[in-house]
């Protein structure tokens, strides 16, 4: 608050300094409210950290709550001829893949164009349709027309072809003695192969012709040839689907590879380990937020917080409660090699878990995923976290409560500020009145002293 500089002029008193001291003393009443607001803000930040850890654990639980996880397959490939990827439709087994020939794209180059020195000189005088032919060995194929303008150059024709979705890319080749228009099929395989061009609808420019000696070059595209477990297969592309049900083969080179399709034990194991690590990370966050160091006299932001105790209790109850299991099924975490330690964290018996994943994935699926969204342990954990984080849950309610307290404290702070300002305004008025009164008294005193001095001087002359 700014001081009024004229205060004290009349009385000679340091009323500005006194008013500043009173202002500081009054504003000291705001400090407890500020500390309470800061405490609630720290709590909200800590709740946010806890919420993040809970969300991470829930994500790990959701991964285990997906029944398709336990049906996923993986492929392993020996040899460099192919690579492979399997879907859930694949069947477990081993397949020998022998790649005889890779699929290739066809190409076609015109005869050398004579009568032009530059690719920008007109090649045709009258435009029309240039037909790209996809025909081979006398078989009836397809023809794709490309519109060519009057007086088009070789460069113009190339650009017109490339502007169309014609199934080829065009370029210009200089063979050392002249120019040719070269086309390459954009797809591999015999049926997609470009095999010729029909210029009959175009009129060549004067002096322009195709060479009789440097003739057109036609390289036919080929299908990939392979066999799987002795069965011959032809494919227009090097990505082969359907040769093995549910498996996509990518042909890399000629040769032989063995493709093994098996249950994806690694994905299941990573999901289970992620679940344990997610819970242990949550437990670590809770320990940090509720820690107390007697030597340093420091405490975590949520030490003694009831919401934290409720969260720990609910999760411990779910994890230790298990699920209802059918005959021979798993009902407790201990059954699959996961135990709850004395410090509250989870621990994995690696050998037991590996055995379960290798031999009992169906039972593992029943245990974690169940037959409904919340039928398995993972679903129960996820649902519990959702409830805890909801508006009426332990964590959601704690966050809402802290936010409400901050709002209430901010209102109280504003009212207190207004009260302090009113008090200081009253002090300013009173100090101003005091300053004026003392100034008036000083003036009266000075007047009386002057009168006394005059009287004394008069008496001295008499």
UniProtKB/TrEMBL annotation:
GO CC terms for this protein? bacterial-type flagellum filament cap; bacterial-type flagellum hook; extracellular region
- Output the InterPro entries linked to this UniProt entry: Flagellin_hook_IN_motif, FliD, FliD_C, FliD_N
Q: Give TM regions.
A: none
| Keyword terms | Bacterial flagellum, Cell projection, Cilium, Coiled coil, Flagellum, Secreted
Q: Does the keyword Translocase apply?
A: no
Q: What is its main location?
A: secreted
Q: Which GO terms describe its biological process?
A: bacterial-type flagellum-dependent cell motility; cell adhesion
Record localization: Secreted; Bacterial flagellum
The domain of life for this entry's organism is: Bacteria
Similarity field: Belongs to the FliD family.
What does the UniProt function comment say about this protein? Answer: Required for morphogenesis and for the elongation of the flagellar filament by facilitating polymerization of the flagellin monomers at the tip of growing filament. Forms a capping structure, which prevents flagellin subunits (transported through the central channel of the flagellum) from leaking out without polymerization at the distal end.
Q: Which PANTHER family match?
A: FLAGELLAR CAP/ASSEMBLY PROTEIN FLID (PTHR30288), FLAGELLAR HOOK-ASSOCIATED PROTEIN 2 (PTHR30288:SF0)
Q: What is the name of the protein in this document?
A: Flagellar hook-associated protein 2
Q: Which organism is it from?
A: Billgrantia kenyensis
Where is the organism placed in the taxonomic lineage, from the top? Bacteria, Pseudomonadati, Pseudomonadota, Gammaproteobacteria, Oceanospirillales
Supply the gene name: fliD
């Amino acid at each position: 608050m700014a001081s009024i500089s004229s205060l004290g002029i009349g009385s000679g008193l340091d009323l500005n300094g006194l008013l500043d001291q009173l202002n500081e003393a009054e504003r000291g009443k705001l400090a407890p409210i500020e500390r309470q607001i800061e405490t609630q803000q720290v709590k909200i930040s800590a709740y946010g950290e806890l919420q993040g850890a809970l969300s991470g654990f829930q994500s790990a639980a959701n991964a285990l709550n997906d029944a398709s996880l336990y049906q996923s397959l993986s492929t392993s490939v020996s040899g460099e001829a192919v690579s492979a990827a399997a879907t859930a439709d694949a069947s477990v087994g081993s397949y020998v893949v022998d790649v005889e020939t890779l699929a290739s794209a066809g190409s076609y180059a015109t005869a050398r164009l004579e009568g032009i020195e530059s690719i920008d000189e007109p090649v045709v005088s009258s435009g029309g349709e240039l037909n790209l032919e996809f025909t081979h060995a006398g078989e009836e194929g397809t023809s794709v027309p490309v519109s060519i303008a009057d007086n088009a150059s070789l460069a113009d024709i190339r650009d017109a072809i490339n502007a169309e979705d014609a199934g080829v890319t065009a370029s210009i080749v200089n063979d050392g003695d002249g120019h040719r228009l070269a086309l390459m099929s954009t797809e591999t395989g015999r049926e997609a192969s470009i095999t010729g061009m029909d210029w009959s609808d175009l009129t060549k420019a004067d002096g322009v012709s195709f060479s009789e000696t440097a003739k057109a070059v036609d390289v036919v595209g080929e299908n990939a040839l392979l066999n799987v477990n002795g069965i011959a297969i032809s494919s227009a592309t090097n990505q082969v689907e359907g040769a093995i049900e549910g498996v996509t083969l990518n042909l890399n080179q000629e040769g032989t590879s063995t493709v093994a399709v098996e249950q994806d034990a690694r994905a299941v194991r990573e999901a289970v380990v992620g679940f344990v690590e997610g819970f242990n990370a949550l437990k670590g966050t809770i320990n940090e937020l509720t820690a107390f160091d007697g030597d340093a006299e420091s405490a975590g932001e949520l030490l003694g917080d009831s919401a934290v105790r409720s969260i720990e209790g609910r999760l411990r109850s779910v994890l230790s409660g298990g699920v209802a299991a059918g005959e021979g099924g798993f009902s407790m975490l201990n059954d699959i090699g996961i135990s709850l330690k004395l410090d509250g964290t989870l621990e994995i018996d690696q050998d037991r878990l590996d055995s379960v994943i290798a031999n009992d994935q169906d039972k593992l699926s029943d245990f974690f995923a169940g037959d409904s969204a919340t039928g398995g342990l993972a679903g129960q954990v996820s649902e519990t976290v959702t409830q805890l984080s909801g508006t009426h849950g332990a964590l959601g309610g704690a966050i809402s409560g802290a936010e409400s307290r901050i709002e209430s404290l901010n209102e109280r702070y504003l009212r207190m500020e207004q009260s302090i300002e009113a008090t200081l305004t009253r002090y300013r008025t009173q100090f101003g009145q005091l300053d004026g009164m003392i100034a008036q008294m000083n003036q009266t005193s000075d007047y009386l002293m002057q009168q006394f001095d005059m009287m004394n001087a008069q008496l001295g002359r008499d």
